[in-house]
Amino acid sequence: MHRCQPPDAVVWPQDAEQVGRLAALCYGQGVPIVPFGTGTGLEGGVCAVQGGVCINLTRMDRILELNPEDFSVVVEPGVTRKALNAHLRDRGLWFPVDPGADASLCGMAATGASGTNSVRYGTMRDNVLNLEVVLPSGQRLHTAGRGRRFRKSAAGYNLTGLFVGSEGTLGLITAATLRLHPVPEATVAATCAFPTVQAAVESTVHILQAAVPVARIEFLDEVMMDACNRHSKLNCCVAPTLFLEFHGSEQALAEQVERTEEIIRHNGGSHFSWAKEAEERSRLWAARHNAWYASLALRPGCKGYSTDVCVPISRLPEILVQTKEDLEAWRLTGTIVGHVGDGNFHCILLVDPEDPEELLRVQAFAEQLGRRALALHGTCTGEHGIGLGKRQLLLEEVGAVGVETMRRLKATLDPRGLMNPGKPPQPRTGGQKLGTQHA
């Protein structure tokens, strides 16, 4: 939905010192700066709406320091989550935050990403211990202090939290210290079908209320399940479906599975399929991660747009049922999939980019869904970020005082408004576009 707006130049620095020199040079000349990780974001966060220089960080791809006894690792911005987990494979450790795409870990920090494992392991906000950030002036900031990797602190403002989710508007993340987790002793996954969307989501709420320590709970509506069957060659029932996964000891898993089955059957669930072998589980979750491509295959030649609201889990049944009705009312083709264990779900809308009337309907639907989530005490974005499409919804979510506070913070760190300009919070005056005098 957010068409590419390329920068005037792209630079590939090799280390943080070069990033600092680049930032200082651009800032001194009034040239906009756009940080780039792997480009997997869905809200136009790397679109160069005012031109300028894109600082592409993909060649800074070293794992700088591993501290297995402290369950922490320091990575450069070019390291992706799959590369890190491959490096950790023989250490009995892993990094569980999994947005689906093989995203840059520092980019995941910049957007406040999460994903399928968040219900148990938390989001990026819970798993970033320290950040090295190059400020627009070229200075390097260590948000928790140089080399520090503690789990808790009461020392002053939470600078790390300020930059997690900042979407490149305050500085360039050149290293992240991340929290690692032990690989579970045993893992089991399952799918189960339900007669209605309401029954599936109510089961999720009941499982969480029963304190079952589930690692993943993913919801797929019947349209999405049909698409995954076709695209990934599954043989699941075409009905509202839950994908679940449990981590722990063999004994604990047996108890969790038994309790979960009891809750699901009470809510009308059926067609249980348990996957204990690694290959079988991988096939199941690969299908879930390929849901985007499975959706696109439903309407060849069309583009996809993913909504991203999150509500308190008690309001999930209500908003999901309403959303299904809205898709029909707006005459839109779309699937629903979500990390319902933490209240976050997505509509993947299929739209003809050459049909302006349909584009308007998609935009209106997305705005209505965002406002419905806000009315239910939720958020307009659970994990994708604000980017270009949700600036007005951000104002409605945090209020005028909230946005003004964000503007003041940005003005302190980026007084010229040159860091990823066009993204919220908007400064009072924008940065200058790169022109011939700067080229």
Task: Write up this protein.
The chain is an alpha+beta fold and 439 residues long. It contains 14 helices and 18 strands. The strands form four sheets. Strands 11, 12, 13, 14, 15, 16, 17 and 18 form an eight-stranded antiparallel beta sheet that branches. It is globular and about 65 Å long.
Q: For the residues shown, what is the average pLDDT?
A: 93
Query: Radius of gyration over alpha carbons?
Result: 22 Å
In DSSP terms, counting alpha (H) and pi (I) runs of 4 or more, how many helices?
A: 14
Number of DSSP E strands: 18
Tell me about the largest β-sheet: 8 strands, antiparallel
The N- to C-terminal Cα distance equals 30 Å
Indicate the proportion of strand residues. 15-25%
Return the structural class. alpha+beta
State the helicity in percent bands.
Answer: 25-40%
- The best one-word shape is globular
Q: Stretches where pLDDT falls below 50 for ≥5 residues? A: 430-439
